[in-house]
Write a structure and sequence with these properties.
about 300 residues; alpha/beta; 2 domains; seven-stranded parallel β-sheet; five-stranded antiparallel β-sheet; 12 strands; about 20% strand; globular; NAD(P)-bd_dom_sf; ODC_Mu_crystall
């Protein structure tokens, strides 16, 4: 499928619903992903997953400095098979699925965890993930106001124009830390090559931290993460975050005891207090959920 067809097959609300259903499905099996360093400084990710009906393998490359080459940071495909007879069913555009399923995971987490969902929404990082989260939170939560911060004022202005085209109130902010005081919804979606946020979120904030998905990557200052561990609630997307959640690991926190999104969905997480910090690292199960959406739509048009 082309990027446009892949996007059209994955509306954010339906994808979030499918992710929640997947987290309740005992037939889902997701082996650890393989991350192979590349000679140019990037990484090759090999991510298989299966359930009783569908099997997938995601093959993507991540090259963080590809913007300087005029290329996307993430490239690749997701191959979808029938788990019963082994037939290849389709090939999905990898970057499109990655953007939309990551935003849908954040949307699902916000549905369950956000003390307030009315916004305003602060987006830090105006790239592909910033755009996907803007659309997902507008479509899925009804957010009507967004503030955008980026190292690139031009990128921030582009995302602001897109938000206004969707009918939102939107403006660029140059100080993300100061903007935290005005926003109960926060998405950090930077390249995570250096700390981008040093301020504390509001006491009623929900933060989706999606930029850092390896131990060496970081968006939030370690002292902020340690403070949130004492005064707020930390939740991770999956147990893979135990060794991948750069923001939390670089803060010296023990990630293993933290509840996962699956625990939250299944009602196995404890009580929450203070700001909620949801750390998303990625998982092939989210790509499997996207494949399930596409396959179900094809079988039941």
């Amino acid at each position: 499928m082309s990027p446009a067809y892949t996007a059209a097959a994955l509306p954010y609300g339906a994808l979030a619903d499918q992710i929640e259903a997947l987290l309740r499905d005992p037939t889902v099996v997701v082996p650890p992903r393989l991350v192979q360093p590349l000679a140019g400084g990037g990484s090759l990710f090999v991510m298989p997953a299966t359930d009783a009906r569908v099997a997938i393998t995601k093959l993507i490359t991540f090259v963080p400095d590809n913007g300087a080459r005029g290329l996307p940071a993430i490239q690749g495909d997701i191959v979808v098979f029938d788990a019963q007879d082994g037939r290849r069913l389709t090939v999905l555009d990898g970057p499109t699925v990655t953007a939309r399923r990551t935003a849908a995971v954040s949307l699902l987490a916000a549905r369950h965890l956000a003390p307030r969902t009315d916004g305003p929404l602060l987006i830090v990082g105006a790239g592909v993930q910033g755009l996907a989260h803007l659309e997902a939170f507008h479509e899925g939560l009804g957010v009507r106001e967004v503030l955008v911060a980026s190292r690139s004022p031009a990128s921030a202005d582009t995302l602001v124009r897109h938000a206004k085209a969707l009918g939102l109130q939107a403006r660029r902010v140059d100080d993300a830390d100061a903007a935290l005081a005005d926003c109960p919804l926060v998405v950090s979606a930077t390249s995570a090559q250096a700390v981008a946020l040093r301020g504390l979120p509001r006491s009623d904030a929900f933060v989706a931290a999606v930029g850092a998905f390896t131990p060496r990557m970081v968006e939030w200052a370690p002292e902020v993460c340690r403070q949130l561990a004492h005064t707020g609630t930390l939740v991770v997307d999956t147990r893979d975050a135990d060794h991948e959640a750069g923001d939390l690991l670089q803060a010296g926190l023990d990630v293993g005891p933290l509840p996962s999104l699956g625990d939250v969905v299944r009602g196995a997480a404890g009580a929450r207090s203070g700001p909620v910090f949801f750390k998303s690292c990625g998982w092939a199960g989210w790509d499997l959920a996207a494949a399930r959406c596409v396959v179900d739509a094809a079988r039941h048009p």
